[in-house]
Structures are given as structure tokens and as C-alpha cells.
Design goal:
The complex is a heterodimer of chains A (417) and B (236). Chain A is α+β, with helices and mostly antiparallel strands. Chain A folds into 2 domains: 175 residues, no CATH class; 214 residues, no CATH class. Helix content of chain A is 53%, strand content 17%. Chain B has 236 residues and is α/β, with parallel strands linked by helices. The model of chain B has no long low-confidence stretch (mean pLDDT 84). Chain B has a single domain, classed as Rossmann fold, CATH 3.40.50. Chain B has a 5-stranded parallel beta sheet, sandwiched between helices. In chain B, strands 2-1-4-5 form a 4-stranded antiparallel beta sheet. The chains are: A alpha+beta (417), B alpha/beta (236). At the A-B interface, α1 and α12 of A face α1, α2 and α3 of B.
Chain lengths: 417, 236
């Protein structure tokens, strides 16, 4: 205890360098724990991109591919599936609800999704949140469009704006459905999922804008009156999502869909596919953690350098302590205590920075990205990291401690300055 | 009659290598309660002798006995503890730890020695009170307490160092050129206070200096050049 109070007083005496050292450790710890936190939340958020959906069905393909184009709206479907197949499974006795998905058009780089109102009713994300309208209403008329939060923000759309949908999924398209503009009737609240980057229209609308099209090019114009008389039930869709009455039936229905004889279909459990996808892209988050751990290491090396360089000017002090009866290991322990105190103070300040920052940034992050960073107590992963930082601090302290030990043995009572 | 000796060195040789010893002292005896002037110019192995007496260094040959305790066979830790318990040191300059208060500097030995802590407590109601008592004896009253040790004059710093060496009444006080950084007036005042306190605490004082003019103030005087055959050889 005597040594500890000596260490604290000695650091207080060198408060400027000590403070800078603590600050650099604190910033690195804040970064490390921040990355860990974001990593955790991003992972949880990602794995909950769709929740409550038991199966996602599309044309026969690999599960990640199917997940990418149905849920993330990245890439294209290998094939469409027939409306009849959809109907058959939508009316399956085990199925509680289903959401049809029809993709293929876009608006200024954002995907246009044709679906039904079941989408707004049943789609869940982030552990059970349902979609919420920030403004307006869901689509009811043929040319109504409901925007995801990011689409509205990035393209600066308001309710009542007219939108032209382009054929195909690219950023730049030369073929537009410019004879049939859509009206923005609703804007969804941010979710932090691909929903934010999607424009939602009804299945009928998708059908309507393609009436008279052949091989991806318009061949004749259709008037509104003609359309009104037409049956706009689609013949094909891209895929659909299914919610079951009982989870127990999941595997059974999945097998039925995969073995469906009239059409080659694939059904995947989104949770499993998301896990697989995460294991592919999750490498990046590990890299991030490694980088922030290296920042902590550099902070601790800074501390080590400070303590080492202070040792020469402290030879006199060590000799005094020796003359009073301090043993060489006590001199070393004094240095260890100093690095422990610095690391510990850095940890505490780093935590304070992190939580202060989270508290300040949380509302902004939530509104901009629909990404909710929880302020909860540090989790087991965080404690492990903090323990590791403390341990690394002690290890870094070993170097100046060893030097002080040697120095005090050589110097004895009369330092060679 | 060994009990009357505070320091007893016999056939002590010390060297960084075998051929050229830095120190070769056939015999050095200092009586308990005496006030010894040890004359030595720099570079004659003086700090080596202090290291041996303090138990920081170990003699290659011979016996280093302080108060009937032979330091040579003791472990390094035991020698450190012996020094903490029984010896107070005052050095030439920069005796104080800059980040500790004056009182904390004086109390420093009590952090490392249970024995001196107990003795200090036996003298005064509390350790701090004992530190203040010693400081007051040495002419530093409570007005100075608030100051940082670096704000004190060198003479005042040396007095704080003396208080630190004296706290807990160690039987042996070793002063290594404690006055060489002082001007003549404060030198006299410091010595007077030092003698007075040593007498009060019944401590043996070994005073090492190259300043021959101080010799008459001591009851016994030894020349390092005569004591140390190694130094004499180098001189010759």
C-alpha cells in the first residue's frame, strides 16, 4: 500500500505527461470498446435483418444468393416463380401469412419492390420490430409508392412527389416507365435494414408498367382506361416470404417446397442463411477489432516509453529510496504500480468517453441509420477486453520496472549521473 | 566487549575484479555513541565503503559487522531490512523526493521499517507529530509545511533530510558530505543541530567529508587514505 501511494504521488508530480499518457490510453480504449460495441450491435442487427419470417422462397438457387436478392435486394434472381406455385404455398394449411416479392425495376439505383400490404403488416426486423410509417400511408392506388427512409432522405422526396421507375436494376438505365409516374404516398421510418433502400409498390403496379412490354422493351403504349379493365394479377413473381402457424412445421414445409414437382423452388431459413453470410463478411469486423487492439498496444507502448525515459532523471529518487531501505523489487513494484495506475485511469476515462459519446450520438445514429446502439452495462466481451488491456498494461510496465530494478542494483546509494 | 562497537570492519576487501581491489581495510572500529569524522577526498573508495556499511554492496572478503550483526552472510533482502531498521543516511544534496510533502519525506523510513515506525510512535502521539517534532527541533516549524520540498533552500532541505535520517531513532547515522553544498553560516548551524539531535537520540554519527576544517568538531577522526590500503597503494 505504501508503494501504491508513492506511485500515485509520483504520477501527480508529473501530471502533464501522466495526463497525456492516460488520455492516449483512454482514447484507444474508447476506440476498442466502441468497435466491440458496434461490432456486437451490427452483428445482432444483421442477423435480425429479417425476423419472424420462417422461410424465404425463390427459384432454385443457392441459399446465400436467394437471401441476397430477396432480403438484401442485391443481384438478380436466377429465375422467376409462377403465381400458381405462390398461391399453392400461400394457401398451405400450415402457412399463417405470406409476402410476395417482385423485383426487377429500380429508381436511381434503388430497387423497386412489388409486394402486397402483407409486407407492411408482417415483415419484422431487429428482434420483432414491425415497419412503421414516418409519414403518409401504405399504397392503396395502382400508382402509389412507399419509400424506404434512406431513399426519401438521399433523393430528398416528400409526400406527393412524382417518381419515374426505370426498367432493370442498374444505377443508370436507358429504359424508363416514364408514361406511368408513381406518387409518393408514404415514407417508412428508418430500420437499419435493406428496407430503407427500397421503393415499395403493389404487385399490380409492377404488372401494369410492364403491360405491352416484350423482351425488356416497350412495344405499345397502353392507356389508363385499358389498364383499368385488365386483370393485373401477375403471372410470375421473384419470390415470397412465409410465416408459419407453428415453427415446428418449418422443416416439413421447407422439404415440401424444395421437392415441389411442378417447378424447381428453393426455400431457406433466413436466420441460417444470414449466419452463413455473416461468416463470410464478418471477417471485416474482426479486422476492425484487431486494428483497434493495435491502437491500444501503441498507447501502452507510449506509456512504456514515458516511464522508461523518466527513469534516468529519477535515479536520484531511486537511490534515496534504496538508502531508506527499499529493496530493488520494491523499486520495480513502484514502477509497476505507476503503469498499473496509468492503465487503470486510462480504462476508466476510456469508458467514460465511450458512454458519454454513445449518449450524445445515440439519437442521431438512430434517426440517421435506424441503428439503435444500446447503452447497457459492459458485456462479458467488454470485461474480457478491459481485463486484457489491464494485463497488457502490466506487461508494458514490466520493461521500465526491470530497468529500474537493474539500475537500482547498479547505483546502490550513489547514482552515477 | 564487542557490544561497545557500532561498526567493526575486519580484513574487508572489495573490488569489481580480483586483481585491483577498490577497498582494502584491515580494520575499522567505531564506538557506540561516538561522533566520527571520516576524512576522504573523492575517488578513494568512499562510496564503496558507504555501500558496504549500508549493506547495498557485499564484501568479497572479511567481516562487516554493525551492532554485532555480521552483514556478509545475510541475504540481500535481510541487508536491506537491516539498513531500513538501523541506519539513517544524509547525502550531499538532492536528498528529498520531490513529489512528497516535507512531512511525507520525513516519514519515508517508517514506510519501510516497522521497527522505526514503532519507535517513532513511542516518542509522539502520531507519526506525523513525531515528524513535526523533529522538524521543529531542526528549526523548521509548521510554517514551512505547506511548501513543496523544491521550494526550500538547500540548508532547509538538508535539515529535512536530517529529520528523515533521525526518525524512529536509528542507532547509526551516516552523513556523506551533508554540508558541502551549504555556505559557511548554515554549515555551522546545520552541524550544531545534527550533533544535538544525535546526542538526544543517542545515535552514532559517521560523518564523511573532504573538508578538513570540520575535523576539530568531532570526537574521533579517521583518514580514509590511511584506512584503505587500496587507496594508499593507488596514491603511491
Amino acid at each position: 500500500m505504501a508503494l501504491w501511494s508513492l506511485a500515485v504521488k509520483s504520477l501527480r508530480n508529473r501530471r502533464q505527461t501522466a495526463l497525456l499518457t492516460v488520455l492516449s490510453i483512454a482514447v484507444s480504449v474508447c476506440l476498442l470498446l466502441g468497435v466491440e460495441k458496434v461490432r456486437h450491435e451490427v452483428r445482432a442487427q444483421f442477423l435480425n435483418t429479417v425476423s419472424g419470417t420462417d422461410l424465404v422462397v425463390g427459384a432454385r438457387s443457392g441459399s446465400i444468393n436467394l437471401l441476397l436478392y430477396t432480403v438484401f435486394r442485391i443481384g438478380d434472381a436466377t429465375n422467376n416463380i409462377s403465381w400458381n406455385s405462390y398461391q399453392e404455398f400461400a394457401n398451405h394449411p400450415q402457412v399463417s401469412w405470406s409476402i410476395p416479392l417482385s423485383l426487377g425495376d429500380s429508381h436511381r439505383g434503388y430497387r423497386v419492390l412489388g409486394t402486397s400490404n402483407a409486407y407492411f403488416e408482417h415483415l419484422r426486423y431487429g428482434g420483432g420490430h414491425s415497419l412503421r410509417l414516418q409519414e403518409g400511408r401504405v399504397f392503396t392506388e395502382l400508382y402509389d409508392v412507399v419509400l424506404g427512409a434512406e431513399v426519401a432522405r438521399q433523393l430528398n422526396y416528400q409526400l406527393g412527389d412524382q417518381i419515374i421507375v426505370a426498367h432493370g436494376g442498374g444505377q443508370v438505365s436507358f429504359v424508363h416507365h416514364d408514361d406511368q409516374p408513381f406518387t409518393v404516398v408514404g415514407i417508412l421510418a428508418p430500420t437499419g435494414t435493406p428496407v430503407d433502400r427500397t421503393l415499395h409498390v403493389s404487385l399490380e403496379a409492377i404488372e401494369a408498367i410492364h403491360v405491352g412490354w416484350h423482351s425488356g422493351m416497350p412495344s405499345r403504349r397502353v392507356s389508363a382506361e385499358q389498364l383499368a379493365k385488365m386483370d393485373l394479377t401477375p403471372k410470375t413473381i421473384t419470390g415470397f416470404m412465409v410465416g408459419l402457424k407453428s415453427k415446428v412445421a418449418t422443416f416439413q414445409l421447407q422439404r415440401q417446397i424444395n421437392e415441389y414437382r411442378r417447378e424447381p423452388l428453393s426455400a431457406i431459413m433466413p436466420g441460417v442463411a444470414l449466419q452463413q453470410l455473416w461468416s463470410l463478411i464478418g471477417v471485416a469486423e474482426k479486422a476492425l477489432l484487431v486494428v483497434s487492439a493495435l491502437v491500444v498496444v501503441s498507447g501502452l507502448i507510449g506509456m512504456m516509453t514515458n516511464l522508461l525515459s523518466s527513469l534516468n532523471e529519477r535515479r536520484r529518487e531511486m537511490a534515496i529510496l534504496r538508502s531508506i531501505g527499499a529493496r530493488p523489487w520494491q523499486i520495480a513494484a513502484l514502477l509497476m504500480s505507476e503503469s498499473l495506475a496509468l492503465t487503470f485511469a486510462g480504462l476508466i476515462l476510456g469508458l467514460a468517453l465511450l458512454y458519454g459519446g454513445l449518449l450524445a450520438a445515440q439519437p442521431w445514429i438512430a434517426s440517421q441509420f435506424g441503428f439503435y446502439l444500446s447503452l447497457g452495462l459492459p458485456g462479458p466481451g467488454d470485461w474480457l477486453l478491459m481485463g486484457a488491456v489491464l494485463l497488457a498494461g502490466l506487461l508494458a510496465g514490466l520493461v521500465p520496472a526491470a530497468k529500474a530494478y537493474r539500475q537500482s542494483l547498479v547505483d546502490g546509494l550513489t547514482p552515477r549521473i | 566487549m564487542a557490544s561497545s562497537l557500532m561498526v567493526d570492519l575486519q580484513g574487508v576487501r572489495f573490488g569489481w575484479n580480483r586483481q585491483t581491489p577498490v577497498l582494502d581495510i584491515p580494520r575499522l572500529q567505531i564506538e557506540r555513541g561516538s561522533r566520527v569524522f571520516l576524512y576522504g577526498p573523492s575517488g578513494c573508495g568512499k562510496s564503496t565503503l558507504l555501500g558496504l556499511l549500508g549493506g547495498v554492496l557485499m564484501a568479497g572478503e572479511g567481516v562487516v559487522r554493525i551492532m554485532e550483526t555480521d552483514l556478509t552472510p545475510l541475504s540481500a533482502a535481510r541487508r536491506d531490512q537491516f539498513r531500513a531498521d538501523h541506519i539513517g543516511f544524509v547525502f550531499q544534496q538532492f536528498n528529498l523526493i520531490p513529489y512528497l510533502s516535507i512531512v511525507d519525506n520525513v516519514l519515508l523510513p517508517c514506510r519501510f521499517s516497522e521497527r522505526r515506525r514503532q519507535r517513532a510512535r513511542a516518542q509522539s502521539p502520531s507519526l506525523e507529530a513525531e515528524a513535526r517534532r523533529l522538524l521543529a527541533q531542526l528549526g523548521l516549524d509548521r510554517r514551512y509545511e505547506r511548501r513543496s520540498v523544491t521550494e526550500l533552500s538547500i540548508g532547509q532541505q538538508q535539515r529535512v533530510a536530517a529529520a528523515r535520517a533521525l526518525i524512529g531513532s536509528p542507532p547509526l547515522l551516516i552523513a556523506d558530505e551533508p554540508t558541502s553544498a551549504l555556505d559557511e553560516d548554515s554549515r555551522g548551524a546545520f552541524l550544531e543541530l545534527l550533533f544535538q539531535e544525535c546526542e538526544r537520540e543517542a545515535a552514532t554519527l559517521v560523518f564523511v567529508s573532504h573538508d578538513q576544517s570540520l575535523r576539530p568538531l568531532f570526537s574521533q577522526s579517521l583518514s580514509f587514505l590511511e584506512l584503505n590500503r587500496a587507496a594508499a597503494r593507488q596514491e603511491g
